[in-house]
Design goal:
Layout (H helix, E strand, L loop, with lengths): L3 E3 L1 H4 L4 H16 L2 E5 L5 H15 L3 H5 L9 E3 L21 E6 L7 H4 L17 H26 L15 E9 L12 E4 L5 E4 L7 E4 L5 E3 L7 E4 L2 H6 L9 E3 L7 E3 L2 E4 L5 E2 L17 E2 H12 L1 H7 L1
Parallel strand pairs: 1-2
Antiparallel strand pairs: 2-10, 3-4, 4-5, 5-12, 5-13, 6-11, 7-10, 7-13, 8-9, 8-11, 14-15
């Protein structure tokens, strides 16, 4: 039911594979909004190392994690109760999601012009001082997925009947978010409570590495919730609200949620891959026409990301108010 795309031939240089994959991706986003990515080339050892660092981070004493508390750039540690998915269009979420998470973004230096200008969501990463090797592994994983994402956007362009390189410049220095999430085991959930509440992602592309513990569920366009089983050889990929706006609702931003009733701790390491923060998101030329005018006013990626974050993260709710 969830389409599977194998990109190994394309990544190996087979240009003919690009058109086949474009058609497959188009079907996935017009009908489901999720797909499995096989043949991605990310070493299993690197994926395992990233999961190990996620576990190691969350195994620290709470006071060590709180020393890196999440800031106005959404970088750092978000404790339990830190998010309520109020932007959800499919559920009136009233309770915090039962998870804790650590957020990283593009690695920057103090002399970075965006850091000096204090541009939103472009601050310095916070690194745990007592976890040697954590930073190197996290950055290696993020770099691998950044390079993969930049290859994948050509499939998206082809799927949208655009020149293959249409998105290249917008993703030359993409916005990236790495989230290391811990879902504790929970036998009973209160009414309207979830490990992560029903929501849509905010951005262009989410790549979710295969987890040992199941829990992800997606909502099909007909309203049915289904499990999204973990495939050890595949990333689960979905689009978010930016992709939906950019394509004038042609491509789906599919709601999803997580419920960890496995009796074991669940860890997830989603990587969010988006255009440069200053990119203007205006209806793509192949997604409009007579009888199908643009549905949304143009916005920049950063403007939408700020609205979304203020709706969903407790530490930014007061700022929005």
């Amino acid at each position: 039911m969830i389409p599977v795309l194998d990109v190994s031939d394309y990544l190996a240089g087979d240009t003919a594979a690009l058109h086949r994959l474009g058609a497959e991706l188009r079907y996935a986003f017009e009908n489901v909004g999720f797909w499995y990515l096989r043949g991605h080339g990310v070493p299993r050892s690197l994926i395992d190392a990233a999961f190990a660092e996620c576990k190691r981070f969350h195994a620290q004493p709470l006071e060590d994690k709180l020393a890196l508390r999440i800031n106005e750039h959404n970088i750092g540690y978000m404790p339990m109760g830190g998010s309520i998915a109020k932007s959800s269009k499919v559920n009136n979420n009233t309770k915090p999601s039962v998870n804790e998470a650590f957020f990283l973004r593009r690695e920057r230096t103090p002399d970075d012009p965006d850091v000096i200008a204090n541009k939103r969501f472009r601050g310095l990463n916070q690194w745990p001082p007592n976890l040697p090797g954590f930073r190197d592994t996290a950055l290696a994983y993020m770099y691998a997925l950044e390079q993969l994402g930049r290859r994948l956007v050509r499939i998206y362009a082809t799927a949208l009947d655009l020149p293959a390189g249409y998105f290249d410049a917008m993703f030359e220095k993409p916005n990236m978010i790495q989230r290391f999430t811990h879902y504790p085991p929970r036998d009973v959930y209160d009414d309207n409570e979830f490990s992560i509440a029903p929501h849509t992602d905010s951005g262009f592309m989410t790549l979710l590495a295969p987890s040992e513990v199941p829990g992800l569920q997606i909502r099909l366009p007909n309203g049915t919730w289904i499990d999204a089983p973990s495939d050890p050889d595949a990333f689960v990929v979905n689009g978010g609200d930016i992709l939906k706006r950019w394509t004038n609702d042609r491509f789906l931003s599919t709601p999803h949620r997580a419920i960890n009733s496995s009796g074991r701790a669940r860890y997830a390491i989603p990587f969010f891959f988006d255009p440069h923060p200053d990119t203007v998101i205006a209806c793509l030329p192949t997604c409009q026409g007579p009888g199908n005018p643009p549905k949304y006013e143009p916005t920049t990626y950063d403007q939408y990301a700020l609205w979304y974050a203020q709706r969903n993260y407790v530490h930014l709710n007061q700022e929005a108010a």
